[in-house]
Write a structure and sequence with these properties.
Elements lengths: L1 H21 L7 H27 L22
Amino acid sequence: MGGLLIVFVFAVVVALSSASYLFTPRGPNQTVIRTALIMTLVSCFLMWSITYLAQLHPLMRPRHSKIRPHNPTEHVTF
């Protein structure tokens, strides 16, 4: 589903941005409201897509610890 999901969500964000641009009520703050709505949608999309891609294709692969893992069945007595 990798890259196709990002394209689908991008299309949804474009549709929502277009709707917010077209259906913003008229008034003295119309430009401010449009800008705020579209910038919010774009910022949320960028944050989500960067996080999604970072988990989909990590830069470093996981490394195993050289320390022996804790065994919960062992009882340590002092």
